[in-house]
Amino acid sequence: MALDHEEYVELVLRCVEQVPRGRVTTYGAIAEVVGGMVGGGGPRLVGSVLAQHGGAVTWWRVVRSDGSLPPSHEVEARPRYLDEGTPLRPGGSVDVKRALWRPELG
């Protein structure tokens, strides 16, 4: 099943919108779900979609597999994590083991 770029973007944004408050998912987890449907696309493509189209969704709930965000996102994301009660490690990154939520598309 081949999707065009707009359909891919919509699937990525749908995944992000499903992440519950206080939880996170990873760029890779979204790439697995969406890529499994479309036959391709990795974490970098998911990041690109969020950079271009993610302003209206809960983008801060998508982190790197180690729980970090790109440095440009940290200042705005950290207060949201604190507000939502997202588990954090002492160094400030998200505790992925405690906060991970796996996306699904049905």
Report what the structure shows.
The chain is mainly alpha-helical. It is built from five helices and two strands. The protein has helices at 5-18, 27-38, 43-53, 71-84, 96-99, and strands at 25-26, 62-63. Helix 1 (5-18) packs across helix 2 (27-38) and helix 2 (27-38) packs across helix 3.
The poorly predicted ranges are none
Q: What share of residues is helical?
A: 40-55%
Mean pLDDT: 90
Radius of gyration: 13 Å
Number of discrete helical segments = 5
Q: What is the spatial order of strands in the main beta sheet?
A: 1-2
User: Given the C-alpha coordinates, what overall shape results?
Assistant: globular
- State the order of secondary-structure elements, H for helix, E for strand: HEHHEHH
Fold blueprint:
Elements: H1 5-18, E1 25-26, H2 27-38, H3 43-53, E2 62-63, H4 71-84, H5 96-99
Parallel strand pairs: 1-2
Helix pairs in contact: 1-2, 2-3
Give a concise summary:
With 106 residues, the protein is mainly alpha-helical.
Overview features:
4% strand; 106 residues; mainly alpha
